[in-house]
Amino acid sequence: MNKLSIRDLQLKGQRVFIRVDFNVPTSNGVVGDDTRIRETLPTLRLAADRGARLVLASHLGRPKGDSFAERAAGGPSLRPVAERLGDLLGRPVAFATDVIGESASKTVFSLGDEDVAVLENVRFEPAETSKDDAERVAFAQQLARFGELYVDDAFGAVHRKHASVYDLPALLPHAAGDLVRNELSVLRQLTSDPARPFVVVLGGKKPSDKLAVIEKLLDLADRILIGGGMGYTFLAAQGYEVGNSVLEADQIPAVKAVMAEAKRRGVELVLPVDLVAATHFAPDAEHSVVPVTAFPADREGVDAGPQTRALFAEKLADAKTVFWNGPVGVFEFPAFAAGTRAVAEAVARVDGLTVVGGGDSAAAVRALGLDEGAFGHISTGGGASLEYLEGKTLPGLTALDDPEGT
Ligand code: ADP
Ligand code: MG
To answer: Residues with Cβ within 6 A of ligand 1?
Structure first.
């Protein structure tokens, strides 16, 4: 169904509640990679330039506890994020030390046109993520006081049935921000008539995270390359020894079914032919390259081997559409990043639409110092893009539907 765009709203002088995804890595109150903040700047600048009063809400991490007080005492605060936003926007950003309390009211109701405020971590309020509909709605009603309009620019959270994503837009005139609209338009290109060959690269840790999406991708892709931690369950399903590698033995039947289905449909599944096998999971572990046919029982796989890197690059060379999700090795350890680097470089060389979806995959592109501009699109939402490709209904997107929209 159609969604209104922020560009369709009359923003001047209005308090616009914008749900953003500022869930960035922080450690000891210092913001690390601020990509997610930068990605939402176009929407924020547009709203400010049109004279809106911006009220921004985001989650950060997974704070624990039964009350705001407990969660705020232990959880990550958005304050440093608000400070970074101020630097990036080049204008002052007010910060509320709570979500629906006195500080929030005071901050929000003293905003003038073009002013920006950030509320404290919305997940400090347990009701945000409550499974109880009434609890979430009651909380959303509190949030609704702060906005005359609602805009969702938090693509990374649209797959969550949370109050600020799902219940709040039902209470206010709503629209999608540019970040959400751009992400959707790229995902639509993948799912409706992609240029062929369409090659998918899947890695990451566990097949159980991604089997549902593989099933769906069998409808769309011409070729699926499988590596990383999840590759070992596929290799084990073919009867290979995988030693101490990450293996989800209970997924073997499901993996076998996917392999049979791929064959039936003529989708080429490509598995590793050699691996980097380490003595244990550590950055400086002793390691060597082994063929998949002779994996030592006392070792664990940590990266794709050189022949696999060449094979994957060859299988990507003629692609016209690529979706890549999941590193093919433990790229966080420099000694085991070569496979992921090879995949990233091969994807970057493709002459066609290339989409990187997945938090760790996007992090790998940046950590390995690759040119982000060489990729067609790097999604800000790993979970959300996978669920979209699976064909699931995403609560945050249904909430934005508008029969009058364009
Ligand atoms: P994304 O966030 O891009 O969707 P995932 O979260 O599925 O990716 O997986 C990323 C993680 O998978 C990384 O932390 C990486 O170290 C891990 N991984 C990749 N290959 C292996 C492997 N062979 N053994 C263990 N972990 C692996
Ligand atoms: Mg991940």
So the answer is: 203-205, 209, 228-229, 246, 301-302, 325-327, 329-330, 332, 358-361, 382
pTM metric for this prediction:
0.90
Per annotation, catalytic residue among 61, 65, 101, 383:
383
Atom of ligand 1 nearest to the CA of 302: 23
**How far apart are the C-alpha atoms of 159 and 214, rounded to whole Å?**
18
**Can 349 be counted among the known catalytic residues?**
no
Is 369 labeled as catalytic in the residue annotation? no
pLDDT (tens, 9 = 90+) of the chain, 406 residues, equals: 678 999 999 999 999 999 999 999 888 889 998 999 999 999 999 999 999 999 999 999 999 999 999 999 989 999 999 999 999 999 999 999 999 999 999 999 999 999 999 999 999 999 999 999 999 999 999 999 999 999 999 999 999 999 999 999 999 999 999 999 999 999 999 999 999 999 999 999 888 889 999 999 999 999 999 999 999 999 999 999 999 999 999 999 999 999 999 999 999 999 999 999 999 999 999 999 999 999 999 999 999 999 999 999 999 999 999 999 999 999 999 999 999 999 999 999 999 999 999 888 998 999 999 999 999 999 988 889 999 999 999 999 999 987 654 4
179-183: long-range contacts at Cβ-Cβ below 8 A with a sequence spacing of 24 or more? 179/39, 179/40, 179/42, 179/43, 179/153, 179/155, 179/380, 180/152, 180/153, 180/154, 180/155, 180/397, 180/400, 181/3, 181/5, 182/377, 183/155, 183/377, 183/379, 183/380, 183/381, 183/384, 183/385
Q: Report how far residue 116's alpha carbon sits from residue 270's, in angstroms, rounded to the nearest whole number.
A: 49
Atom number, ligand 1, closest to the C-alpha of residue 204: 9
Q: Where are the alpha helices (DSSP H) in 4-55?
A: 35-39, 41-49
